[in-house]
Amino acid sequence: LSVFAGSFSLAAAEAVAQEHGAGPGETIDVLDRLVTRSLVVPIEHGDVSRFRLLEPVRQLAAEKLVERGEADDARERHTQWYFELMDDLGTRWRAGDDQGTWPTAASELADLRAAFDHLIDSGRVDDAQRFVVDAYGPIACHFDVAPMYEWAPRALRVEPDRVGRFTASACAIAAAGAIPREDLEASAAWLRRGAEAIAAGSQDDGLVAAIAIHHVLSGGEPAVS
Q1: DSSP code for 222
Q2: What are the angstrom distances between the C-alpha of 111 and each of 5, 8, 75, 154, 159?
Q3: Closest residue by Cα to residue 82 from 51, 115, 52, 50
Q4: Which residue from 22, 80, 82, 171 has the highest number of Cβ atoms inside 10 Å of its Cβ?
Q5: For residue 152, which of 100, 108, 197, 106 has the smallest C-alpha distance?
Q6: What whole-number distance in Å separates Cα of residue 167 and Cα of residue 208?
Q7: Are the C-beta atoms of 2 and 52 separated by less than 8 Å?
């Protein structure tokens, strides 16, 4: 549980714990014991029960996990859970579930950040760019645009010459993030890179064109034709 950066659901805890030997139903029994011992704090979050480790406990547990050589596997299971969650939220948002996705993203933001960091650290460039694109609707369009300012450029700078399915849209998001900072030169550069990515075979979902219009309406020169 020390791999969780914020509060977590039972389903998330099971996803991390089951491959470590915990069978169905065992995770909730362990959580109950930890709550009874005041090592884990239960949090009522609407109709869903969530949990969090007390910070001193989390730090000590993280140290023990490293000592046992299990930190990397636990971190990978954590990242995979949140990668799949972000993919689901992005798919639902694009399908019109506008109000049903952002509250989940908001409650999971700390761990979504942690998962994205791990994607970058482990060199999963395509997955990192996909993560950015999936996060754009549920996060940037609703409650916190800051991750997009950080995530998109980071995902695009790991392998600058790489063009994947989501590169063009990630470039558009990076361009959108530069506009509120009034860095229209950077915005134009990201848009041009996005157009080049489309020409090289990256997925074109219209986001580059939409952000290019926003860029012009914000005072920038046309960056792509």
Answers
A1: P
A2: 5, 8, 11, 17, 24
A3: 115
A4: 171
A5: 197
A6: 10
A7: no
Query: Distance between CA 125 and CA 224 in Å, rounded?
Result: 25
Amino acid letter at 109? L
Q: Would you mind telling me the total number of residues written for the chain in this entry?
A: 225
Q: Are strands 40-45 and 8-9 parallel, antiparallel or unpaired?
A: unpaired
Helix, strand or coil for residue 201?
A: coil
The one-letter amino acid code at 95 reads A
d(CA 155, CA 167): 9
Segment 101-159, tens digit of pLDDT: 999 999 999 999 999 999 999 999 999 999 999 999 899 888 777 777 789 999 999 99
CA angle 83, 89, 95 (to 5 degrees): 140
CB-based contact 65:59 (threshold 8 Å): no
**Bridge partners, 53 (sequence order):** 40
Q: Distance (Å, rounded) from C-alpha 200 to C-alpha 105?
A: 32
| DSSP assignments along 167-183, one per residue | HHHHHHHHHHHHTTTT-
Count, in order, helices (H) and strands (E) of the chain. Answer: 11, 3
- The set of residues, in sequence order, having a beta carbon less than 8 Å from that of 123 and lying 6+ positions away, is 158
The 3-class secondary structure across 2-30, one letter per residue, is: CCCCCCEEHHHHHHHHHHHCCCCCHHHHH
